[in-house]
Structures are given as structure tokens and as C-alpha cells.
Design the sequence.
């Protein structure tokens, strides 16, 4: 499985961005997909996850502001981010877990929230 993330950029506080992640390869084996982020000087943390059945899980700090979704027909994962704050500044990574528990990572996309 190969994952290609895009959509990062510079946005002002209160603004919005939409991240996308395109999956290719053995996509039929994918179960859970998610977004993680790593802020400068911090450990990587889970932002949101979505199962193949559509169940979602969010990090507490992004609930109500971020929405994760996936389009299985397009083999794509999305993260709509609204009401962004400087604390959301990080490199965002998409992730997939196949039915055997193997992890796959895409390259990161930088999100910078600054005035």
C-alpha cells in the first residue's frame, strides 16, 4: 500500500484546510485509516481515525473542528480542518492499517497556522 498526502499549507488562525490522502497498491486489504501529526519538539499523535465501516475516532482537541472521511471508491482519505489554531501547526501524516495489522505511512504534509 502506498499513501500520498497533500493539501497542507499556511493558513491564518480561524481558517480551514482540507487534507487528502490517495491510496494505491493492495488497497483491498486496508481496514483502518487515519491522520496523525507531529508538532515541532513533540511526539507524533493521533488526530483522527476511520474504520472501513465508517466508525470514527477523534483526538479530543480537534473534536467539533475536524472531520475525517474516506471515499472507498476513490481510494482516498480526507481531513477537513476548520477553526484552525496555531496549536494545530504540525506535519500531518496519513496512515493505513491492513486486515493483518500491518501499518503503512504516507509522507507528511506541513500545516502551518500563523498570522
Sequence:
Amino acid at each position: 500500500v502506498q499513501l500520498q498526502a497533500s493539501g497542507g499549507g499556511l493558513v491564518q488562525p480561524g481558517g480551514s484546510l482540507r487534507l487528502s490522502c490517495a491510496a494505491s497498491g493492495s488497497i483491498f486489504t486496508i481496514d483502518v485509516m487515519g491522520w496523525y501529526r507531529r508538532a515541532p519538539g513533540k511526539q507524533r499523535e493521533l488526530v483522527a481515525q476511520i474504520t472501513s465501516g465508517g466508525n470514527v475516532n477523534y483526538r479530543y482537541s480537534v473534536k467539533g473542528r475536524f472531520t475525517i472521511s474516506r471515499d472507498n471508491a476513490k481510494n482516498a482519505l480526507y481531513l477537513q480542518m476548520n477553526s484552525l489554531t496555531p496549536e494545530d501547526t504540525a506535519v500531518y501524516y496519513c496512515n493505513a492499517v491492513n486486515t493483518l495489522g500491518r501499518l503503512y505511512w504516507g509522507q507528511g504534509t506541513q500545516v502551518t497556522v500563523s498570522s
In short: DSSP finds no helices and eleven strands in the chain. Residues 32 and 51 are 4 Å apart (CA to CA). The chain has a mean pLDDT of 94.
